[in-house]
Amino acid sequence: MGVEVRTIVDDELEAWIAACNNGFMRPAAEGAADFLRTAEPHLDRCWAGFDGTSVVATLRSFATPLTLPGGAMVPTAALTAVTAKPTHRRQGLLTRMITPDLDNAAERGEVAGILIAAEWPIYGRFGYGNAADHCQLKLDVSRTRFLREATGTVEMVDAGTARRECPAVYDRYQAAQPGAIERNGRWWDIATRLKPFPGFPIPERFWVLCRDTRGKVVGYVSYVVDDHWVDRRPENTATLGELVGVDEEATLRLWQYLAQIDWVQTIAASDRSVDDPLHWQLHDARALRAYERSDFL
Length: 297
Hints:
Blueprint: E1 4-7, H1 13-23, H2 32-38, E2 46-51, E3 54-67, E4 73-84, H3 93-107, E5 112-114, H4 120-123, E6 133-140, E7 153-157, H5 159-176, H6 185-191, E8 206-211, E9 217-225, E10 229-230, E11 233-234, E12 236-245, H7 248-258, E13 264-272, E14 288-295
Parallel strand pairs: 4-5, 12-13
Antiparallel strand pairs: 1-2, 2-3, 3-4, 6-13, 6-14, 7-8, 8-9, 9-12, 10-11
């Protein structure tokens, strides 16, 4: 008997998650199925390859608006959770799952398919292509001086306050940022660790809000700091979870806050725009290094 490809039903969700975790080389996580059920996983968009009763391949999509240059938003189908067990690779299972999923997306009026591809060669034959790049940034704090001081104030807050304040900031950011997609409440619950996703540990982060001169929250940053000392001198790195500002002023104010943290020598930021304006806001632009530029969306 060959492999059957179809969408799953509720009592197959646990096996589907286990197969997905296997594909990403993660251990099974107890409680993940119940967690996803509360998030409305839309099982009609969860595809699987069944070899008998065993799930050997997975694919899922979800609907999200995508911001285009100029500020328009269009409905899209975001692809995720694409896996195949090592025993069932190169058997055409991806084609058999993705083709009907894309057909269904077109029928729903989702005008584009998007994803963050783990491997470049796989998706081009289905019509996907590189739309936006990203890079990693490292800022040497000891060499950092800014050309001007940004306005606004910053305050450290707890995760509960971040959960209340940050979504509205991101919504404003998304509305103006090409390539950005929406985030629902469950995304924020996970990011702030108020409702952890089983099997996806997120470190406890510091959260900082930026307010403009009128007191309105216009930006936020989350980060962790390692504890690294050499010869009794701190050489710590602040690694950003995310830095978001609704405008250049808020973004600059948050960078300036980070550069003033005692004992931090390096600020590391991933998934930044390749044309991040921070270079042009420094006395010495070489204090900032961009590296690992790659396709993203």
